[in-house]
Amino acid sequence: MCYDDKAQPPIPPGAGGSAQGEELILEAADGNKFLAFAAHPAKPGKAAVLIYPDVRGLHNFYKELALRFGEIGITALAIDYFGRTAGLTSRDESFEFMPHVQQLLIDNFFQDVAAGLSYLRQQGEAGSAIFVVGFCMGGSLTLVSGTNKEFGFAGLIPFYAGLTRNFGGRGTALDLADRVSYPVLGLFGGNDPGIPVNDVNALETKLRATGIETNIKIYEGATHSFFDRRYEEFADASADAWNQILSFISSH
């Protein structure tokens, strides 16, 4: 599990605006209905983010994160993975997520992503830039969905993306890195036992070999899930991660 129910996203620089949060049920092309949470800025800019949660799906950390983006003028939509197998039930700590993770299929997930993108494009200006921000399994899926050229992302921002999970036999995020089509800002902890630095370096090598713009940041001493307001020892890493994100979004 990446974040528990007490986790809180760090505050971004320049926060102070207002945003309205909205619980949603979106529908994919195959009829799947799934949970989502949108944050609408009072003064929206020309960028939006699609948020991929960790293995627990759409729980409170990601709703709060969507609001933090909204408060700095970035429309945000966080989506759930498990509508097909768990329905529209709660994703609090009592949710037994692993049986549903094991049933996750990339083709189905891509249909949900398409529905999320459609929603964001209906909300924003024509030609608005949409970025993906994903955490843990969501970071892995950020890279995997970066292989789909039809999505039209402006960029990919995976946090501590797991590099060894094989999604339904389609390959791991590391296996598929040479097919990624969008600029990447990858954010990793240097003391993450589940994601060795050697694997992160291998990811960077494969991404750079494609010719796409690649920026991989490894925060020395930071653990998995370091991006959490409770972890004062990682406050500098979290602040820099926010700066990296906003610079990446601004430049794309």
UniProtKB/TrEMBL annotation:
Keyword Iron: no
MF terms in GO: hydrolase activity
Pfam families: DLH
Gene3D superfamilies (UniProt xref): alpha/beta hydrolase
Keywords tagged on the record: Hydrolase
SUPFAM superfamilies the UniProt entry points to: alpha/beta-Hydrolases
Domain Dienelactone hydrolase: 36-250
TM segment ranges: none
Cited InterPro entries: AB_hydrolase_fold, Dienelactn_hydro, Dienelactone_hydrolase-like
Name of the molecule in the record: Dienelactone hydrolase family protein
Native organism: Candidatus Chlorohelix allophototropha
